[in-house]
Write a structure and sequence with these properties.
CATH superfamily of the largest domain: NAD(P)-binding Rossmann-like Domain
Number of strands: 13
Order of helices and strands: EHEHEHHEHEEHEEEHEEHEEHH
Bound molecules: NADPH dihydro-nicotinamide-adenine-dinucleotide phosphate, the ligand C[C@H]1O[C@H](OP(=O)(O)OP(=O)(O)OC[C@H]2O[C@@H](n3cnc4c(=O)[nH]c(N)nc43)[C@H](O)[C@@H]2O)[C@@H](O)[C@@H](O)C1=O
CATH architecture of the largest domain: 3-Layer(aba) Sandwich
CATH class of the largest domain: Alpha Beta
Largest sheet: 6 strands, parallel
Distance between the termini: 55 Å
Number of domains: 2
CATH topology of the largest domain: Rossmann fold
Shape: globular
Amino acid sequence: MPDNATPFSLDGKRVWVAGHRGMVGQAVVRRLEDEPCEILTADRKTVDLRNQAEVKAWLADARPDVVILAAARVGGILANSTYPADFLYDNLMVEANIIHSSFEVGVGKLLFLGSSCIYPKFAEQPITEESLLTGPLESTNEAYAIAKIAGIKLCEAYRQQHGADFISAMPTNLYGPGDNFDLQSSHVLPALLRRTHEAKQRGDPSLVIWGSGSPRREFLHVDDCAAALVYLLQNYSAPTHVNIGFGEDISILDLARLIAGIVGFSGTIEHDLSKPDGTPRKLMSSARLQALGWKPKIGLRDGIASTYEYFVRMTDQPARGGSSLRGFAASG
Ligand SMILES: NC(=O)C1=CN([C@@H]2O[C@H](COP(=O)(O)OP(=O)(O)OC[C@H]3O[C@@H](n4cnc5c(N)ncnc54)[C@H](OP(=O)(O)O)[C@@H]3O)[C@@H](O)[C@H]2O)C=CC1
Ligand SMILES: C[C@H]1O[C@H](OP(=O)(O)OP(=O)(O)OC[C@H]2O[C@@H](n3cnc4c(=O)[nH]c(N)nc43)[C@H](O)[C@@H]2O)[C@@H](O)[C@@H](O)C1=O
């Protein structure tokens, strides 16, 4: 069987999960523990992925058969719009270093993770893979989106020029255990879980959400995302990137109401209109992935409820000597 044929077996393979400490990386590691492969990891102190020499040396030494590129500078709407240079530079460097050096050391299969923000701001809904580069991007995350589009194009180019089996997946907005709960830099779902929990604890009469509440987003549990990523590794080999979505979207106001119900907060919801709304709607078509034979299992209500249990468990820990909840100590 040629190297880039499907199905691709992970049996006995050495798989490097780049970004294994992040929300997606942790979920991918959990999922790969069910496969007969060897999982390789390297933390930021060992390899700064923006540093070409460090990435090259690490890959030349570790010699993975498979690379899952789940490392990136990631953040919500405010972080993206406040630090565009960091989001563009870091992500371009991480992708370019890992994709190029993986090719040089002969990695057999590489999976690059992009994001649904690569699509035009006013793309037709649900958004198909063909919408890429058909219109202007949303300004709040243009820098990040351009870096992610460059990553897709790098994978396509190494496939076209060198026959490398490099593929790309575009997950929708994700949530779950291991998420960043920092109120300034996080995405909406972890931010609202934390803010609603704290409002309930304080007995606040109201809760503030950013923007008008009218934008619609599609949310996928990170364990479903990890399952889809491993499925794509095993069953997909082609130039076109593949959307990974949940199949339904929800307005931010309805998400806030859903979270309030799960947390048990009965106050009112108010709006901070100084904060951006971002793209009005982002519902992807996952028809290509479904045609390959994969669909999600975790419903939004159940997924949020289990993520809230995780959050409460983690926030309990300072009393017992220190929290491992990401972004918890850093914000107010
Ligand atoms: N979260 C979401 O809603 C979505 C995420 N994605 C994509 O999924 C991927 C993972 O995202 P997610 O898990 O949420 O992000 P996280 O921020 O949780 O994790 C990112 C990981 O990348 C590592 N990393 C970043 N920069 C460097 C660097 N210079 N050197 C070494 N390691 C680095 C971080 O290391 P450290 O722990 O040391 O900081 C961290 O482990 C990204 O490609 C993202 O674009 C796509 C769609 C939605
Ligand atoms: C995954 C994806 O994530 C980002 O794009 P986004 O979907 O716009 O991000 P978000 O989750 O931060 O916001 C979604 C919506 O929710 C509203 N909102 C309300 N209240 C809070 C709140 O408290 N925090 C945040 N962050 N948003 C809030 C907010 O105003 C917006 O209307 C990019 O990083 C992008 O690059 C990317 O790939």
